[in-house]
Design a protein that fits this description.
This is 2,5-dichloro-2,5-cyclohexadiene-1,4-diol dehydrogenase. With 256 residues, this protein is of the alpha/beta class. The protein has helices at residues 16-27, 39-51, 66-80, 103-130, 152-172, 190-196, 205-215, 224-235; strands at 7-11, 31-36, 55-60, 85-88, 134-139, 177-184, 246-249. Helix content is 46%, strand content 15%. Helix 1 (16-27) packs across helix 8 and helix 4 (103-130) runs parallel beside helix 5 (152-172). The structure holds nicotinamide-adenine-dinucleotide (NAD).
Length: 256
């Protein structure tokens, strides 16, 4: 198994790609700390893992709160005795406007995409050092590699995530900690519906999604499991000589 004896923390773990990661990593032998604000969905994914004979614990947290970003690391260590792998997956689409932007919409996007990730990672690094090293993965986006016309705040936040990733890759290499990001294209999760259909967008959800599919060389949106597969590789020892990489998993969207 590819993650045997590894302890992994995943945020935004009760839905979409994070949920797919919980199921996949547990099937590969990891002990999984699954973090989300949605207790009922968290309970359901943890039950799915344990019913299948895997190991997972659910940690309910609101990652807009700094104290919760720290507590999820502490709770993981209390549950499993340490931490080897961290997947900072939480994020938020934010507003699509710039003119007349609502400060609350700006704040929540920056808090969940950037601030929470700094706070969680900062608490996790000493725990990874105690284990002699580890691996950190961020979820950025293709909007963190190119400018997304629909999502200026989101683009700014995800470029920030990729900047954090590149900086930490150099900083933590001497500690045997690898740091990478995965940059999904449009993926079939509840958040995709938000991206494609925000009220301040000029065109409707169906038209936006059809346009994204047309602009994607593979001609479709991705599946959550396809991101979990990439996350598994980047976090595992199979990627032992890979650090500082922002990997697009996007059906070829940014290749054009
Ligand atoms: N879906 C896409 O097309 C897409 C594309 C690129 C990047 N992303 C990124 O992927 C990540 C998650 O996306 P997804 O599509 O898997 O999402 P999703 O909508 O399937 O799940 C998001 C999860 O985050 C949880 N959450 C929301 N607010 C929270 C909070 N304050 N504290 C803790 N948990 C909270 C929700 O309960 C939910 O379970 C984000 O970083 C997003 O920016 C998504």
């Amino acid at each position: 198994m590819r993650l045997e004896n590894k302890i992994v923390l995943i945020t935004a773990a009760a839905s979409g790609m994070g949920r797919a990661g919980v199921l996949r990593f547990a099937a590969e032998g990891a002990q999984v700390a699954a973090v989300d604000i949605d207790q009922a969905s968290l309970d359901a994914v943890v039950k799915e893992v344990t019913d299948a004979g895997g190991s997972a614990t659910g940690i309910c947290a609101d990652l807009t709160q700094d104290t919760d970003c720290h507590r999820i690391v502490d709770d993981t260590v209390a549950a499993f005795g340490g931490l080897d792998l961290l997947w900072n997956h939480v994020g938020h689409p934010g507003p699509s406007s710039v003119e007349g932007i609502d400060p609350d919409d700006y704040e929540i996007a920056m808090d969940l995409n950037v601030r929470s990730v700094f706070w969680t990672t900062g608490r996790a690094i000493p725990e990874l050092r105690k284990r002699g090293g580890g691996s950190i993965l961020f979820t950025a986006s293709i909007a963190g590699l190119i400018g997304s016309p629909f999502s200026p705040v989101y683009s700014a936040a995800k470029w920030g995530v990729n900047g954090m990733m590149a900086s930490l890759a150099g900083r933590l290499a001497a500690d045997n900690i690898r740091v990478n990001s995965v940059c999904p294209g449009p993926i079939d999760t509840p958040m995709l519906k938000v991206f494609m259909g925000r009220p301040d967008q000029e065109t409707d959800r169906e038209a936006n999604q059809a346009m994204m599919e047309k602009l994607t060389p593979l001609g479709r949106v991705g599946r959550p499991e396809e991101i979990a597969n990439a996350a598994l590789f980047l976090l595992s020892d199979e990627a032992s000589f890979i650090t500082g990489v922002a990997l697009p998993v996007d059906g070829g969207f940014v290749s054009k």
